[in-house]
Target: Peptidoglycan/xylan/chitin deacetylase, PgdA/CDA1 family
Amino acid sequence: MKKLSGILIAVIMVIGLVVGGFSFSETRKHITSNDLQEIEKGFQEEKVVENEDNLKGLEDEFNDKEEMNKEKEENKKHETINTEDGKKPLPNIGDYGQEGHKSSKKVFLTFDDGPTSLTPKILDILKEHDVLATFFVIGKLAEDQPDIVQRTYDEGHMVLPHSYSHDYSIYSTFETFYDDFYRAEEVVENILNIEVPPIFRFPGGSSNHSSFRYGGKQFMPQLTEDIKEKGYYYIDWNVSSGDAGPDYNDKDKMLNNIFQGAKNKDFIVVLCHDVSWNVKMAEILPQVITTLREQGYQFRTFKDITEEELNKMVSLKIANKSIVR
Ligand SMILES: [Zn+2]
Model:
């Protein structure tokens, strides 16, 4: 009996030890995973701090002071290299992008009447120079070459409707105009699978005279008021390359048109046409970009246009200009 109870006690002790040890290790595991979560949470919070306040976040992350000091030294060196005569250096030219240096001078390059065989060439040049622009496209051409429209949009440019047919007979009645306009809008939306903003350009611009022989002299004043009431912004330009007129084949004249047109203006919308025969316009484009950049212009696009910029266009009569005749 004594022997039996001895064995029983031994068995109970063994069971007790095993269960106790097991539950202890469970608790440890539990604490450990809790700890991990806490650490992870702390780390994430630190990351947020780092985003909000880079310096503080960075300092928190550096446990190794030596490494931190090395980093500080590097920063100092960097500052010394870039500073000339105590003046803050301008960012690299390449930094004048959409996210880059905020200049008070702005340029919106616009290309009308595409897509054509010239459009890919224009896109290559823009890409090479890290510039984004806006393309006001003709619906029926876009339908034929949706891949170019898609490429344009995918490379960061904005694609907006211009007209479906670009036939000035659209200016006969409100009905003929809106039929054509909505069709153009639909084509762009269907290709890109987006809802385009209510921004477009009238064929010939808002103060065109081509409409005179269709809807008459009072047609554009009435149409512009009507489309404004519908919430649209129609965009004209304050600098023209002249590439839709007799200068289209003369590089010097087009360069002169642009640079004279931009003179004393710190906010410009430049009119160009990516029609297939405008090879000379494509040839001057790199010089136009480089010079405007040197003059301090920041390249902007309607893709991420701000309300402030749109209002500025209205006040400069580049957008929603009232037509009085
Ligand atoms: Zn046009």
